[in-house]
Amino acid sequence: MTPSPDGKPRVALFVTCLVDLFRPSIGFAALKLLEDAGCEVFVPSQTCCGQPAYNSGDRALAKALARQAIDAFSAYDYVVAPSGSCAAMLAKHYPGLFADNPNLAGRANQFAGKVHELASFLTDVLGIEAVAARFDRRVTFHDSCSGLRELGVAAQPRKLLASVDGLELVEMEECETCCGFGGTFAVKFGEISTAIVERKVENIENCGAPVVLAGDLGCLMNMAGKLARNGSPIELRHFAEVLAGMTDAPAICAAAAPQTKR
Amino acid sequence: MTASPTSAQFVLNAHQAFEDEQLQKALHLTREGFVANRAAAAARLPEFEALRDSARDIKAHTLGLLDLYLEAYEKKVIEAGGTVHWARTGEEANSIIIEICKRHGAKTVTKGKSMVAEETGLNDALAAQGISPVETDLGEYLIQLRHEMPSHIIAPAVHLTRDQIEADFRRNHADLPPERDLTEPTALLAEARGVLREKFLAADVGITGANFLVAETGTSIIVTNEGNGDLTQILPPVHIVLTSIEKVVPTLEDVSQILRVLARSATGQDISVYTTFSTGPRRPGDPDGPEEYHVVLLDNGRSSMLGTDFADMLRCIRCGACLNHCPVYQAVGGHAYGWVYPGPMGAVLTPSLIGIDKSAPLPNASTFCGACESVCPVRIPLPKLMRHWRERQTERGLAPQAQRWGLGLWGFFARRPDLYRLATRIAMPLLAWLGRSEGRFSRLPLANGWTATRDFPAPQGDTFQAQWRKRTKTAAAHGDGE
Amino acid sequence: MSARAEIFANVRHALAVSGNEAPRRRSVEDRLRHAPQGVIPARGQGDAAARLALFRDEAERVSADVTELESAQQIPAAIATFLHDRNLPARLRCGSDPYLAALSWEATGLHVEKGRADPSDLVCVSHAFAGVAETGTLVLTSGGDNPTTLNFLPDTHIVVLNAADIVGDYEAAWQKLRMVYGKGLMPRTVNFITGPSRSADIGHSLLLGAHGPRTLHILVVNEGA
């Protein structure tokens, strides 16, 4: 690893497996935001943070994936993820996985201290107050649970969104209530997950914003999937796409065909 | 009424809850009130968060010294003229109570609200001996009329609508004239109050639970808003407290700390209307109060939770905040959980008390949104404890097969980054191509739980890592890379 | 093995209690002896006037009525007026509390019965042991002076509270109680009462007078005022 020649913070992007596989445009938006903020960004070879295994009770697999991620990401100044849920897994849960192993616990703690959720990193660590982007839409913001409750991410993305030209943020009722995704929960308890997301959709529709932003692709896929099934024209995007001015890709669940802009 | 647990069929129970329009209506009506009221009460007390820490620490301290605090408590009860009985199981607790009732020739007993009595199935046990138990908490009374279990630990009849209550009264109250107008809730309340007042006065024994026990003084404490617990315990000649061993706290100062977070977390009141501290039986010169005072202390698996991952759960003060803030509870209500304790606290406690084999879905039925932990007045890490149950299930091979296979397959690739990149580099563009016209899938194999009601987004195409590698290679070829 | 022995054995086994438990015992004894205070809300920590004002606000917030009197001698007349205004019969029940017994009830024409409450009593009068400003809570103790049934059986409960007995917080009420009853000793029943009885179990609306009194009327006697 070559040290950064000009003292730029060396940031490893933990892109998350959902973004890697389903919506790389979020990863590129995060990349642009980090580079614009003066970081040197690296993308180490990566797979999954282990959260699905961890939350399903498969601690052994979670540990194996955690070791893999710690090995791949420890050489950088910071590890940043465009996801509150994956960042919380790395920052809040990795240390506990190795609590019984003093050697690894130290490494896991050190690693955890470098991990940040994207919006929190930009504002809390880098002190960014504003981005140069334009988005002439009314948007509402869904607070994803892990980012909100485990990492305290709520004000940071809103602050950055407020600096986007033309963007108007309209808060929905119960923006801090779970959307019903919950990883494998959404499939294992599909009927309950559906009831929860229906309520979320009701709140989204009641607030009148045509665009929903959030910081976790899992939640966005769930809300978008429900809205699309309902035939709703409401668009869902990761906030990074808007902050980076990279909103050319069709919204989540939207067809690639030419979009009519409202 | 305690039935055998149906927690194992949580998914089916939940399905029935969605079919039940009355229930959905009631859940809808109540879900926002509890949340808003708690938030307002917490906001009104600047020391609230510090008090949560204090409450947590008091309970943790006591549990670590539980044997000694129980000894101290027992000694004080005896000094005050009361009797302490110990019960390993629900059956033992019921037998002790039945024996006391029989000794007094009891025909009817009044009952204050007690989740522990639900746990032991006391009402059925009493009825089987020809002793009729009358629930006096209005909510408990309403569900007793319906032979149901409570659906909420502090608002047991929260699932019932006014219309259902009127119908139940008309069916059960023999002296209620058919022409009496019960349209107004106040008329229903007056009807219930009148019927239950007779029961209070006729009861031979009064049975209450206890929110707390105080080791310093040998005192049992009940917290109510109606005053039913007080009428239950001061009118009959015998007062029996049925509660469990983890309810003890050291001192009156300690219980005062916890009282400050209990009602605020439960209903958003600063304190409940009646907090009653009872110590022993009636004293010489007292014109009222029971002549006998018995405390039945139930273990029922709690002692074996100490020293394990689940010991934190014994801090629970049964406020119900975790239920009120849980999106799953809000959607399905309490009965779906299939036993006495619903919601997140039930998802942790029920497997400890009846076995994980009989309650396997409960700790899995959570999105881990963390709302429960964020409001718990004694800061129980509920998601962590639910996760521990999931880990136990995995260790014992109790996890569902589909989940094990799915995770195994995912793990196989996720642990081999090169293979993962190769496989996803091929699979994702293919999936993207399949979903290209709509941008989403309305059906996917093995994901019916999702796609029955929701579309699934199609991937954009090449994975991020594939694109990134292409990009850095191109950059390197142009000589401006690393 | 008896149930008791087995439960204790299980608890001690689970807590991994080994031979030397002197430090554990000391910890318990210390705590029980010293009863350390925890977090005390600042809002109850004002002077007597502030405590009275806060008590009143908080009690009214939970639907209790509060009337201030300048002397104990005004109590019978205040009660007579209250009953008259509410269209209630001029009769009440109270215990043998010497403070209440010393008042001249005859002049008011009120019929006063003594002893524990009877189910037919509509109005009972008690003398509170203390008031707690932080939540507008009354503290009542059982016994012949103020039988506990008075607090729960009537439809209207009138409670006389001396302003000097209003403390800031629950902990201060316990201190006061220990002064009277002794450390570690309690009357059979201590009732904290905060507003009139209520329930939200029927139709999700909050209704007063569920089982206990529908009306809680507090007469605060502030002789220092």
Sum up the structure in keywords.
heterotrimer; A: alpha/beta; Rossmann fold; 2 domains; globular; C: alpha/beta; four-stranded mixed beta sheet; 12 strands
What do you see in this structure?
Helices cover 48% and strands 11% of the residues of chain A. Chain A has 262 residues and is of the alpha/beta class. In chain A, the strands form two sheets. Chain A has a four-stranded parallel β-sheet, sandwiched between helices. In chain A, strands 6-5-7-8 form a four-stranded parallel β-sheet, sandwiched between helices. In chain A, helix 12 links the parallel strand 7 (211-214) and strand 8 (235-238). Helices cover 50% and strands 11% of the residues of chain B. Chain B is of the alpha/beta class and 482 residues long. Chain B contains 21 helices and twelve strands. The mean pLDDT of chain B is 94. The termini of chain B are far apart. In chain B, the strands form three sheets. A six-stranded parallel β-sheet of chain B has the order 1-10-7-4-2-3, sandwiched between helices. Chain B has a four-stranded mixed β-sheet with strand order 8-5-6-9. A two-stranded antiparallel sheet of chain B has the order 11-12. In chain B, a hairpin with a 4-residue loop joins strand 5 and strand 6 (219-224). Chain C has 225 residues and is of the alpha/beta class. Helices cover 31% and strands 23% of the residues of chain C. Chain C contains seven helices and twelve strands. Chain C has helices spanning 3-14, 22-34, 48-61, 75-85, 98-101, 149-152, 170-181, and strands at residues 65-69, 91-94, 111-114, 123-127, 130-132, 137-141, 156-162, 166-167, 189-193, 198-199, 207-208, 215-221. A six-stranded parallel β-sheet of chain C has the order 1-12-7-4-2-3, with helices on both faces. The longest helix of chain C is centred in the first third of the chain and has 14 residues, at 48-61. The model of chain C has no long low-confidence stretch (mean pLDDT 95). Chains B and C meet through helix 2, helix 3, helix 4, helix 8 and helix 10 of B and helix 1, helix 2, helix 6, helix 7 and strand 9 of C. Strand 9 (274-278) of chain B pairs antiparallel with strand 9 (189-193) of chain C.
